[in-house]
Design a protein that fits this description.
mainly alpha; 77% helix; 0% strand; mitochondrion inner membrane
Amino acid sequence: MAIPGPYSGVSTLAFVARTSAFAFGLVYGSIKLSYLRTKAKSHKKADAKGHH
C-alpha cells in the first residue's frame, strides 16, 4: 500500500460539507413541498366554496 502524499484526494471536510448540504436540501425540500401542498389544498377549498 502506498503512503498518501500531501493530498490524497479525499478531504474529510469536503465530504462532511457535501453530505450536510445534501441532507439540508432533502429536509428543506420536504418541508417546502408539504407547505406548498397544504397551501394548494386550502386554495382549492376556497375556490370551490366561492363558486357555489
